[in-house]
Amino acid sequence: MRALHSVLVGAFLTLLLCLPSPSHGESYFGDSFCTIQAFQDVSTFQLSLQIKTSRRSGLLFLAAGMEDYLFLELQNGRVEARMNMGSGEVTLSSSQVVQLNNLLDHQISLTLQDGQLTMTIDELYPTYVPVTDDGEELNIDQGIWLGGTGALDTPYLSNAIPPFRGCMSEVRFESHQFDILRTAFRQCHDTKESCSSEFQASDGEATSFSTPDSFVSFSTWSGASDAPRALEFLMKTTIEDSLLVFHPGRDTDFFAIGIVKGYLKGMVDLGNGVEVLDNVQVQLDDDQWHRVVVQIRQDTFAINVDSQSASLPLDPSQTFDLVGNLYMGGIQGKMKEVFRDSGPLDRIEEEMTTESFIGCLGEIKVNQKHRSLQDALVTKDVHVKCEGEDYDYSTYYDVDSTTTSPPVHIRYVDIDLNEQHCYATDETPEEFRNVKKLLDVTPLLVTEGGEMLLDVSHLKPTFDLGAAGVHQSEIVFSLENEPWYGLVDIEVPTKHTQKFTLLDIANNKIKYMHDGNERHPDQIRLEVAVHTNSYLPECLKAPREYVLPVEIVPLNDVPQLGGDEIMITENGRTLLIPNIIKITDSDTRCDQLEVTVTSELLIDVGYFENDKQPGRRISEFSCRDLNDGSIYFVHRGGTPSAITLKISDGQSLSHSTTLKLSVTPPHITIVINNGLALAQGSNTSISIQNLAALARPRNGDLVYNITQPLQYGELQKMTSSGMYKQVTMFHQSDLERGRLRYVSTDSSDQEDVLADMIQFDIHLGQFTLWNNTFLVKIIPAPVKVSNLVALEIQDDEEQTIGLTELQAEVRGKNPDPQSVKYILMNPPKLGSLILLNKELTEGDIFTQKDLLDGTVSYRVRVKRAVDSTDQFQFRVFADEQYSPLYTFPVNILASSAGPVLTNEILVVLQGGEHTLNKDYLWLESPDSIDYMYQIAQQPKFGHLIRDSPPGQPRFEGAIRVFSNEDLQRNRLIYKHDGSKSSSDEFHFSVFDQSTDSGNDEIISGVFRVSIQSKNEHIPFRVVDKVFNVVRYGQRLLTT
To answer: Which residues belong to the signal peptide in this entry (predicted)?
Structure first.
C-alpha cells in the first residue's frame, strides 16, 4: 500500500508539472521542447505568445498535421509564419522596424480571420497577407510543438531551423474564443519554469554546474593551420573526480580534460593512440579559483594550471580532426550513448570518470575569444554566478523528462583552401599536368542577417570544362550538413533535395541565408563528384569534400550600457569592471567604444580616474580601459546618489544610463598569506596564490605599503612599458595580474636557507590593517661561481680570461661546459669584454667552453695616468637555474710613458646643450698635450659645434675636427636635437701633432652622451585640503 501511495503521489506531481504555466513562462535551452496533445481542425484562430531571447533564429510554435502545418519561427531577428492548409504555403513576416533578439520581452500575435492572416508585434507593428477562403481548415493531426520538434518526423520538416533558446510565456492558441492549449495534456523536455538569467550572461561571468546532468556545449573548437588551439577558463570545485571538457573527433580522434583525485588530467588522440598528460603541481578540489590554460600545437600538448605547466610531445605528422560540439562541464545525456558506441567514452573511462563536473567555471576563452552562455548552443542545469555568491537556486528542481529525439550531428571541419588532390605523373595528360584539384574555393561574403547567391567564382573549376568535354550539369554537389548560422536555399525542381549542380549555381538557384548571428563565421560543407563520360583523371572525378567558408560582414548596432548598483569605497578608490558597467555591442571592437560621464559630480564628492594618470579627473574612458582594469571611482566625501553615462561607437550614441552609487565603509581581511620560496639569485612572481586580502566593498582598491627595508632582495613591479622597477608600494590588482615579483639580490656565499621578512600595512580608504608579515624563503643557489680571481692588466694590454680567473659549478652535477652560460648584466666602463674579436654588451652571453678555449678577453679602452679599477657584473645560467649576481673586478695599472685618455660620459638635458671640455675628454702624455681629434662617426641625435669668441655670431654647423686646445678653452659644445632618445655617441681617432708627419693615430675610441628626458607637462595640484592630525597621533597621508 505504501509503495502504491508513492506511485500515485509521484504521478500526481508529474501531472502538475506538465500543466502549462502561462504567467511565469518557461526557459528553453537549445534542445528543449514541449509537445501538447491538442488535435483540432480549425478555420480561424488567434495565436499569441511572448518571447525574450538574444538568438536570431529558432522554432517558436508548430501546429503539426499529416500534410497541413502552421509554423511560427524566429529568423534573422524577425518572426516568420508559414501555413499550409492544403492549397499551398502562405508566408508572412513581421515588420522590419523591430528586431526581436535584443533580450527584451516581445508580444507576438498571429490571427487568421475573414480570409486574412495578420501578424502584430508588441501591438504596434501589424503585417498581413490574404489567404484563399475556400472552406479549407487547418488539420492538426499530430499535436502542438513549442520550442522544437523533438522526434516528430514529417516531410515538411526538411528545412526546419534549430530549436529555440530563450524564454517563452503566455502561449495561447484560441479558436472561436476557446483556448485549445488550456486543457490539453502537455509534456516538456528539458525546460525550466520562469525565465533563466543565463540568457543574459555576459563575457567573463561565472557559471555554476550543480547537478550530475549539467553541461554547456559550444560550436566546434576549430584551429587555424598557423596557430595552436587554445582553451582557457577559471574553475572552482570541491569534487575530486569529474569530466571538465570533451570534444569528439573524426574516426578515433578526441580530446578530454578531467579531474582525477583532485588533479588535472588531459587526454588526446590524434589517430595514433591515446596520449595522457597529468598536471599534478596544483590541487584543484580546494574550493578556490584556479586558472587553466590548454594549448594543442602540432607537436605539443600543454596544460597550465596557475602558471604551473605540464606538457608532452605529439607526432607532428598527425592531424587533429575535431568535429561536432565542444562540451564543458559534462556531456549531453542523449549523446553519451553515441560517443560510447563510437569508442571515445570507453577509452576515456580507462583514465578518468565521465561524470559531470560540479562546481563553477568562468572567463571561458576559446582560441583567445570570450565565450559566454549567450554563445552556447545547448545548456542544461547551469546557473549564472557561482554557488554561494548571492544566487537563488530555489527555482531549479528535478523534473521527470523523456525524449526519443535522435541525436543531432553537427560536423565542422578545418578549412585548407590550398589542399591538393591530384599529383602529376608521367602518364598524366598534358592539359591536366598543372591541375591540383577540381575546384578553387573563394569565401562567400554575406552581410549580417542577409543573404547571398552562390556563383561560379566561389566554386570555380581549375581547368577549361569545355576543352575537357565536361558540362556544368555534370558537376554535382551534395550538401552534407546545414550551416549552423544560416540556411542553404536550393531552388531546384526536385523538392526536399540536398543535391544541386554547378549549372544550378551558374543560374542563381543556390542561396545562403544568414541567421544574423554576428559573433561567428560559418561554412558550407559539400561533397563534390563529377559524373561524365568524358575523360578525367580519377582524382578529379572521385567524390571529394569541399568546405566553402562564409565570412559575415557585421551591421552596426547601437551600443548599450547597463549595470546595477555600484558599491564604492568610502573615502577611497573603487575599481570599475565590466561586470559593474556592462557594455553591449558585439559589432564594434572594444577599442572603438567610448563611455562619457554626463552627470556632474562635485570635485569634493568624487570623480573618475584612469590608473595610467592617477589624480587626474576624467569625464570619458574607453571600453578597452574598462576591460583592462584601469578605471576607478575616487570617493572624497559626501553621499553621491548616482552617475549618468552614455556610450558611443563613433557613429551612434546610446541613451543615457543611470547607475546608483552606494557608499560603503571599508574593511579588510587577509585571506591568503602563503609566503614564497625561491633560489638565491632568481626571481619569482607574487600572485594572489601567495598573498591576497578581501576588501569590502568587493572592488575597493587595496594598497600595500612596505614599512621596513628588505634584507636579501627587492620587490619589483612591471610598468606599462613592460619593464620592471623597484617599488615599496603596490596594489591588490598588481597581485591579481601577476605584475609583482620578488628579486633575490644577495650575492654572498649562502649555505643555509635565509628568510626575508617583508613587513607591510594594507590601506583601503581611511581603513588600515597594520603590521603584517610576508615570509620569503631564499634557498642556496645550486649554481655558483667557484673561482673568481681579479684581473690585473697594463693600460695598453688585452688579457685573456680563462678558468683560472673565472669558473662556475652546479652543485652535485658535472654539466657540459657549453651549457654553462654567463649572462653579462653590466658591461665594464673603462674597457671592453671581447669574445672572438666582438665587444660584448649588456645581455650578451659567453659560455664556460669559451673560457676553456681562451676566447674571452678584457681590453683597456680608457687610459689614465694613475692606477684605476673596472668591473663587470654577470649571472650564470645552467641546468635551468640562475646564479646570484656576481662582480668581476679588473685592476688597471697605469703606464708612466704612454699617453693617458680621459673619457667620461657627458649628461645633457633633452633638447639642450653642454660644454665638452677636458673634464670629459682629454689625452695627454708626459711629453705632449698637442693632440688633434678627428670624428670618424658623427652623433645620431645631435651634433658638435665650436663656440665663437665673445661678441661674434656662433657657427651652428657640425665640426669634424677639434683639438686639445678647444677642450682646454671650453670651445666645444654638444647640442641635442630634442628627440626622445636616451643616449648618443660619436667615434673619434686621436693624432699626435708634435710629430713630423702628424698623421700617426695614437688611439681611437667612442665618446658617449647620456640624454636626460625633460618633463614637458607643468605639474599642478589637484588636491588642496588642510591635513589634520591629532597631537602625538598619526594618520595616513593619501591622495
So the answer is: 1-25
Q: Which amino acid belongs to residue 270?
A: L
CATH class of the structural domain 439-553: mainly beta
Joined together, the cell numbers standing for residue 178 give 476557446
d(CA 255, CA 294): 11
Tell me the pLDDT band of 64, cut-offs 50, 70 and 90.
very high
| Grid cell digits, residue 580 | 559593474
C-alpha cell at 411: 560536423
Q: What is the mean pLDDT of residues 750-776?
A: 93
Q: Give me the mean pLDDT over the 129-158 stretch.
A: 86
**CA nearest 60: which of 163, 178, 204, 200?**
163
pLDDT tens digits, one per residue of 819-872: 999 999 999 988 899 999 899 998 899 999 999 999 999 998 766 656 788 999
The pairing of strands 116-121 and 125-130 is antiparallel
pLDDT of residue 1017: 67
What percent of the chain shows pLDDT beyond 90? 39
CATH code linked to domain 667-779 = 2.60.40
Class assignment of domain 900-1012? mainly beta
**What CATH architecture applies to the domain 783-893?**
Sandwich (2.60)
Residue 986's CB is within 10 A of a number of other CB atoms, namely: 21
User: What is the CATH number that goes with domain 198-384?
Assistant: 2.60.120.200
Dump pLDDT digits (tens) for 237-262.
Answer: 988 889 999 998 888 889 999 999 89
* 68-126 residue pLDDT tens: 999 999 988 899 999 998 888 899 998 877 788 888 889 999 999 888 999 999 887 78
Closest to 531 (Cα-Cα) out of 455, 438, 464, 454: 438
DSSP string, 824-868: EEE--SSEEEEETTEE--TT-EEEHHHHHHT-EEEEE-S--SS-E
Per the DSSP assignment, residues forming a β-bridge with 233 are 292
DSSP 522-575: EEEEEEEEE--SS---HHHHS-EEEEEEEEEEPPPPPPEEEE-PEEEETTSEEE
* CA 165 from centroid of its chain's CA atoms: 26
CA 411-413-419 angle, to 5 degrees, is 145
Each domain of the chain, given as residue ranges in start order, spans 25-193, 198-384, 439-553, 560-656, 667-779, 783-893, 900-1012
Tell me whether domains 439-553 and 667-779 share a fold: yes
Average pLDDT of the segment spanning 131-151: 87
Cα 304 to Cα 234, 292, 689, 771, distances in angstroms: 12, 6, 15, 35
Helix H or strand E segment including 89? strand 89-93
Among 526, 659, 632, 618, residue whose Cα is nearest residue 575:
632
Position 528 scores a pLDDT of: 94
Whether residue 532 is predicted with pLDDT greater than 50 in this model: the reply is yes
- Interatomic CA distance for residues 405 and 411, integer angstroms: 18
Q: Which three cell numbers stand for residue 800?
A: 685573456
0.85 cut: is pTM over it? no
